[in-house]
Amino acid sequence: MKLKLYDLLGQIDDPRRDLGKLHPLNDILLIGILSVLSGADTWNEMEDYARAKEEFLKTFLELPYGIPSHDTFNRVFSSIDSTQFEQVFVQWVNSLAEIKQGQVISIDGKTIRGAKEHGKKSLIHMISAWANANNMVLGQIKTDVKSNEITAIPKLLDILEIEKTIISIDAMGTQKNIADKIIEKDADYILAVKENQPNLLEQIIDEFRFYKPAFVDINEDIGHGRIEKRVCSVITDFQFIEENNQWKGLKSIIKIESTREFKNSDRKTEEAVRYYISSLTNNAELFQKQIRSHWGIENKLHWILDVAFREDASRKRKDNAAQNFSILNKIALNLLKNEKTAKLGVKGKRLKAGWDNQYLLKVLNL
Fold it and tell me: What's the confidence (pLDDT) of residue 1?
C-alpha cells in the first residue's frame, strides 16, 4: 500500500511551545519539501519560494498567518526529532519502493563538509542505503565522523526492510557484527575486503594464488576515451581461510582484476585488484553485475546531492538542521528520479517544478 507523505508527516512531534506558535507543523514541513523540490537550498530561499507561491500554497495548506519566516523554517527543522523524521522517511519509502528478491542495496557514507561546526574538528557524516534498480534512497542515519560507520551501519540495517535482498558495503563496513546482522535479517552480503581486515585479506590472496577459481568471467567496456577490462574470479571451496576467521554465512570469495587503457591521455594504463567476501554462491558473471551496481550510490546519489542539491556546500550546523535538511534532499531526489514524464536531469526537474505548479503536484503526488 502506498502511503501519502503528507499524512505520515503528522507522526512527527512538534517541538515548539504553544505560546506564539502561529504556523501548523505540517504546513512548515510540506513547504520545506515543496521548496527543496523546486530548487531551494537555504532557509531564505525556502521563505522566498513560499512567498512567491503563496496563492498556490493556500489551495491545499492552512497558512492561517501567512508564510513562515526563514527564521521559523530554521528553528523548526533544527529542532524536530531527526529520528522521527527518518522513521517517517523510511516508512514512506518502504511503501513505494517495491524491493524485489535478490535486489542489491548499497550502503555507503558521505560527509557534508560545509556543516562543520565552528571550533569542532568533526564533520557530519551520513550513512545511506541506495536501491540502484529503483533509483531510490531507502534510509539514512547520521554519524559524527567517518570511523563511526562501523557502529552506524547496524542501526541503519535495523530500520530497513532487507529480507531476501543483497547488501553491498565497502571495506569500512566489512565487520563480523555487520555480516551477522545481515544474515540475521534474512539477507545476503557482498563485502569489500582491504587492509582493515589484514588476516582475512592475506588468506583470500593465498586462496587465489594457489587454487583455481570455480568461476571466471571477463567483461570489457569501451567508451569515454578508454577501454576497461574486468576479470571476475570466484572460489567457493576454501583451503586457506581459517576456521576461527570464518564469517557468518561466508560461501564465496571474489577477485576483480581491472585494467583501464586510455586512448588520449598521458596515463596509458591503470590496473587494480579488489577482493570481496559473500554469503552467495553466484557465478562470476552475476557477481560482476552485482558488484558494479554498488557504485550507483556514488554516481546516482552522492554525486547528484553535491551537483544538483549543492549538499557539500551546505553550512547548516544548528542542532538537527544538517541531518533534517539531508532528509529533505533525499525525499526530493526520490520523487524527482521516479517522475518519468519530463526527460530532464534532476537539476532540470527542480527548475521545472519551481516554474510549473501542475508538474510540481505531479511529482509530489499528494
Answer: 39
